[in-house]
Specification:
Leucine-rich Repeat Variant; two-stranded antiparallel ribbon; two-stranded antiparallel sheet
Length: 1191
């Protein structure tokens, strides 16, 4: 349309004249202009010749050229998710694609261009209306005269427009052509007849009454010995395929297919045996290949438009194709005497079965194909399977040097003029492999199995076929070395099989049914087994084959069902030795490769690639919590670190290339190879950081700095100095540097709001930047002095956001205890009824009117619990009795477990346990420091600000009184001195190991509030509690640089709460609340991150005070593993919210900013007891092992 010439205008005018001439009677009979427009709009429904009008063809072609590719892409996108369901209807696809197309920019541009063009054409036609009308009448008279004669004898001019030709080509003309095409006619007459036929519009030819007869005549003429004549017939067919609708081209296609069937069945044609091969320079072969190629091109194009036509047309095309390809001769049964069937010629022009891939892609055609394969043409699938079996048997029986000749075509893309029988069989094998691979993707395709084969007693099952495919990877020969590297893997059997298995892996339902079983996995692992035993993997197993196997195993391990199979086998409860499962074998093999404890492919250039492939496989396994648990005994982190250090030394020793030296290129290549291998090893180490416990192992390798640098280099360009540029806008220069001051600053405030949800981070920002003071000054500057002397705040996006952040930073409390102002304005006269402020304290409207420290009357049940603490039963019975009574109270009357009663319960229980050696996990520490000793102890500014925050919260709850700051300071100083006695001397560059624990001690602050500010009682309780295992997980500073931990754990700087508690939270979350685990995985936010924040600050700002007390009490009474169970219960409680915020892509912000609304520890006690029954042995074992030297 961009180049609209005079010739184009004349052509369009002729097309419109044809259209109007044929609909003239309908339009002139319309009572009004509106009715005439309605007739034209519904012309396709009322006019059977609608698709034959040249203008309609022109519009169809123009739309196809302009929007065709976009429509195909939309159909691909829409149907890609429907491949498995087989429920997406044809109408749904059409509606979706039509809607998306009409909304597209391309459609609007096309309509605009088309409208402008047609306006020019119509305006020109109107200007010459009278002249055109006269010419039209003369033309009509002439046509009437021509119709009166029996035959049309004038020659059609090649220069006439297609419009004129459509009127000149009549029934008599077609009959004349039929007579002239008779084989008895002279060559020149037959050539002229074909020329006339090719010059006529195909639609006019196909709609003639004699078309069926003509089609038969042309089909018979395809066997004409004159190659020029048969080529012209094929040219006519190709032209027809391009320009005609499906219901017409279908007849051409089926006639050619039928002709080929007859051709191959005819004994007169002397089809050669397969053993003789094919010479593609032979004239007969050339003509046959042209016919097959024409069919194949149509096969690949038809799916793009047959969805717009009735199913019967498509079904005829499919059936004629399957009938042709299933054709067999009733000759001998010996391989050497088999003759060439039609499918051998098809595989030469479409080796990878692209036609079948396109037919199976859409549900519309796939159902027909699968139905016909099942009912009538299953032999096509049987033959394909047989071809794969025969090729495997050949590879298994023959030596490598003999089979190389058989498959030399696999990589040779150079011009070949002769295909031997073996090469033909190999190409057919590749075609069969691709066809079967596509078939297995779909449920109905898999239902065609098992297959009964000739000369085979048992049927071949789906699993048998997958094992066969797997074995082909390492039994089939490699491609010849002399072939071009660019095409080496295009048709090699191993790469083709791997491609099929990769596609199956990517379809979850298919993978579960086909690949996730022990038989297939064992077949994949067989060469690895053999290599570790010191035997040869397989006759033709190469480095490339091992890389392919590793790739398939990695894809299996990347899906939950596949990973479970590799970790535990098909029967998780089987007594079979666990070390024989796939994950163990893969880990053992990789460890041998990394430790160079295996002589496989020694000195091979591809050995690092083999190692890298199996590193990727193991990454998929140890990148999960359960996978890491299984692979920990193999210490892969140590082997990777050792290999990395060795490689790093090698890279340092590579000499600097000297200019003009012959060795420059070789040194450069060597350097690149070593660098690539080094990055591969670092990436393998970095994947340990995917889990909390894996991060501990990574830290122990002394390679974490290099891993962080490696990761940082990936994202360096995306990082910006954010806090300084977007939050603390205290200079004109900073403001001017922003593209949009208000939007950027609001973004910075939103970021600050999320950051400050971590109370330690909030205190750090306050200590270093006095952020709240800066925000208060900004609010002061937003005050407007009125004429009456009033001071009103300017209400805008910035002031509203600052107000929210200031309240959030200053006010502590759970979901019921604090009120946060909204960030959005409300509708109505008062858009923001919340009071703003420019100095503390906060307005009272932000303080919730909750019941504060209301000690409930002690009931009889609570008295029974307290009584149990004074009884002197046997120790085990006493503990179990207390725990049972505590659980009973938490389920029935949880509100009674609070205040003074809770303090008494905790004091008695912890005192009893601390005096029992069997219940103490940590050794007793004598503490004799006096007040005078700790007087000179200094607290950091962060701790001082934390004390102020604690006292504010305590006073708000009526738990603390004036003077509490001094008492809490005293407690924290004694705690610091008490813990310092137990710290080890560590030399480390980690800042977190320099001095005391960073951040505030939120557990001590919580206990201080629980003890109503009694400093002596608080300190005494902490000293007793420090002997129990629970103290390691509730009181985080307890183990900071503690001598109780092994040296490598201390030097890692990673707390047991992270590498133990949060590790198991992620592990249990995957099993107990899989949807939530998947949501975290998709969002890129780890559950361990938010759980560590909750636990570190004792759920402050997330739970109300009574729930914080219940959290502490539950972990003390029932064990530290309940810390894990409580977090799992929280995620279960939040499941719907988490799924919703995953969709809105703000999960991290939601979890950090929002309190845990509606969550009560007591509501989930029964659920947590079930978790205890299922997981306690494993969790407590690992929690008790934190003092062990190795994890």
């Amino acid at each position: 349309m961009a180049h609209f010439s005079g010739e184009d205008q004349a052509m369009l005018q002729a097309m419109l004249r044809q259209l109007f001439q044929n609909v003239k009677e309908k339009i002139t009979g319309a009572p009004s202009l509106e009715c005439a427009e309605e007739i034209l709009l519904h012309l396709e429904e009322t006019d059977e010749n609608f698709h034959n009008y040249e203008f309609v063809k022109y519009l169809r072609q123009h739309i196809c050229n302009t929007l065709g590719s976009m429509i195909e892409e939309e159909m691909e996108k829409w149907t890609s998710d429907q491949n498995q369901s087989e429920e997406s209807g044809y109408d749904t696809v059409v509606q979706h694609v039509t809607k998306r197309t009409q909304e597209s920019k391309e459609y609007k541009e096309m309509m605009h261009s088309l409208k402008n063009t047609m306006m020019v054409v119509v305006e020109s036609m109107i200007n010459k209306f009278e002249e055109d009308e006269m010419r039209s009448q003369e033309r009509q008279k002439k046509m009437q005269k021509e119709k009166s004669s029996s035959y049309c004898t004038d020659n059609c001019s090649d220069s006439d427009s297609s419009f004129n030709q459509s009127y000149k080509f009549c029934q008599g003309k077609l009959q004349l052509i039929l007579d002239q095409l008779d084989p008895g006619q002279p060559k020149e007459v037959r050539y002229e007849a074909l020329h006339t036929l090719c010059s006529a519009p195909p639609s006019d030819v196909l709609t003639c009454e004699n078309w069926t007869t003509l089609c038969e005549k042309l089909t018979m003429s395809l066997s004409d010995p004159d190659p020029v004549f048969s080529d012209r017939i094929l040219k006519f067919y190709a032209q027809t395929f391009t320009l005609s609708p499906l219901h017409l081209t279908k007849e051409i296609y089926t006639s050619i297919a039928k002709y080929l069937e007859i051709y191959f069945l005819s004994r007169e044609n002397h089809i050669p045996p397969i053993s003789a091969g094919i010479d593609i320079t032979s004239p007969n072969v050339i003509r046959l290949l042209k016919k097959v190629r024409l069919l194949n091109e149509y096969q690949k194009e038809a799916p793009s438009f047959w969805i717009r036509h009735p199913e019967k047309y498509m079904e005829e095309i499919v059936e004629s194709t399957l009938s042709l390809l299933s054709l067999k001769h009733d000759q001998s049964h010996l391989v050497s005497q088999k003759v060439l069937h039609p499918i051998y010629f098809l595989v030469l022009v479409d080796t990878k079965a692209v036609w079948f891939k396109k037919w199976m892609h859409g549900y519309y055609s796939r159902t027909v194909v699968l139905r016909l394969l099942e009912k009538k043409y299953k032999s096509l699938i049987t033959t394909a399977v047989q071809q794969c079996v025969q090729y495997f048997e050949l590879c298994e029986a023959m030596k490598a040097d003999e089979t190389v000749g058989h498959s030399k075509h696999c990589g040779n893309k150079q011009k070949t003029f002769f295909y031997s029988g073996q090469e033909l069989q190999y190409i057919y094998f590749i075609h069969s492999l691709c066809l079967l691979g596509r078939l297995l993707i779909y449920t109905q395709g898999r239902k065609l199995f098992p297959i009964k084969l000739k000369n085979r007693k048992d049927s071949l099952s789906l699993t048998d076929l997958l094992v066969l495919f797997t074995q082909l990877i390492y039994y089939s020969p490699s491609c010849p070395k002399m072939t071009s590297a660019a095409h080496l893997e295009n048709y090699s059997p191993a790469s083709m099989v791997t491609e099929v298995l990769q596609i199956l892996c990517d379809q979850k339902e298919c993978a579960v049914e086909c690949l996730y079983n022990s038989t297939v996995v064992e077949a994949l692992l067989q060469p690895i087994h053999n290599l570790m035993r010191g035997t040869k993997a397989a006759p033709n197993c190469s480095e490339t084959a091992l890389i392919y196997i590793a790739d398939v195993l990695a894809r299996i391990a990347s899906v939950e069902e596949g990973l479970t199979l590799l970790l535990y086998g098909e029967n998780m409860n089987s007594s079979k030795e666990k070390s024989s499962t796939g994950a163990h074998i893969i880990a053992q093999f990789l460890k041998k490769l990394l430790d160079e404890d295996i002589s496989i492919f020694s000195g091979s250039e591809m050995l690092p690639m083999v190692k890298g492939a199996f590193i990727s496989t193991c990454c998929q396994i140890y990148g999960t919590c359960e996978g890491l648990q299984v692979l920990i005994p193999y210490s892969l982190h140590e082997s990777l670190a050792k290999a990395w250090k060795k490689t790093s030394l090698l890279s340092d020793r590579i000499p600097t290339p000297v200019e003009d030296s012959d060795s420059v290129s070789s040194i450069s290549q060597e350097s690149q190879n070593i660098m690539a291998w080094e990055e591969n090893l670092l990436d393998g180490l970095l994947n340990f950081a995917a889990t909390p416990k894996g991060l501990l192992l990574l830290q122990r390798t002394d390679a974490i700095n290099e891993c962080v640098t490696f990761m940082f280099n990936r994202y360096a360009k995306k990082l910006q100095d954010i806090i300084d540029r977007l939050i603390i806008l205290n200079s004109e220069a900073k403001i001017r540097s922003l593209f949009n001051y208000e939007q950027s600053h609001i973004f910075g405030l939103r970021l600050l709001s999320v950051i400050c949800c971590s109370l330690d981070t909030l205190l750090l920002l306050e200590a270093q930047y006095q952020v709240s003071e800066i925000l208060l000054r900004a609010q002061e500057e937003s005050i407007l002095e009125t004429s009456e002397g009033h001071r009103d705040f300017i209400i805008d996006g910035l002031s509203v956001e600052r107000n929210h952040v200031l309240v959030r930073m200053n006010l502590i409390g759970g979901p019921v205890e604090r009120i946060l102002p909204p960030r959005m304005l409300e509708k109505g006269d008062d858009p923001y009824p919340w009071p703003m402020f420019s100095s503390y304290p906060l307005p009272n409207c932000y303080l919730s009117e909750v019941t504060r420290n209301a000690d409930l009357k002690q009931d009889s049940d609570l008295s029974k619990i307290l009584l149990h603490f004074k009884m002197s039963d046997k120790q085990t019975e006493w503990i179990e009795n207390c725990q049972r009574q505590f659980c009973k109270m938490m389920k029935a009357k949880p509100d009674m477990i609070s205040g003074g009663a809770l303090v008494e319960l905790l004091e008695n229980f912890v005192l009893h346990l601390s005096e029992s050696p069997s219940e103490c996990y940590f050794p007793s520490v004598e503490y004799t420091a006096t007040d005078a000793n700790v007087k000179n102890e200094s607290l950091s500014l962060v701790q001082q600000l934390g004390i102020q925050m604690t006292v504010r919260y305590g006073k708000f709850l009526n738990l603390l009184k004036d003077g509490a700051e001094h008492d809490l300071t005293w407690v924290l100083k004694h705690c610091e001195r008490f813990l310092k006695q137990q710290r080890a001397l560590v030399k480390s560059s980690l800042l977190c190991l320099q001095g005391g624990c960073a951040g505030h001690d939120w557990f001590v602050s919580s206990l201080f509030m629980l003890m109503l500010g009694d400093r002596q009682k608080t300190l005494r309780f902490l000293q007793q509690f420090s002997r129990l295992l629970a103290s390691a997980f509730l009181w985080l500073p307890r183990l900071h640089i503690s001598r109780c931990l092994p040296v490598d754990t201390i030097e890692s700087g990673i707390h047991p709460v992270y590498f133990c508690s949060t590790h198991y939270i992620e592990m249990l979350l995957k099993a107990e609340v899989p949807l939530v685990f998947s949501a975290f995985h998709m969002s890129g936010f780890a559950p361990s991150q938010i759980c560590l924040q909750w636990i570190t600050q004792c759920f402050w700002n997330y739970l109300d005070w009574i729930e914080i007390c219940h959290y502490i009490a539950t972990c003390v009474f029932l064990g530290p593993d309940y810390q894990v169970y409580i977090c799992i219960a929280i995620f279960r409680h939040l499941q719907q919210d988490i799924l919703q915020h995953t969709q809105t892509q703000d999960l991290q912000v939601f979890l950090k900013e929002e309190a845990l609304h509606g969550f009560r520890v007591s509501d989930y006690f029964e659920y947590m007891e079930i978790l205890e029954q299922n997981y306690r042995p494993v969790l407590l074992r690992d929690m008790r092992n934190i003092r062990a030297q190795s994890t």
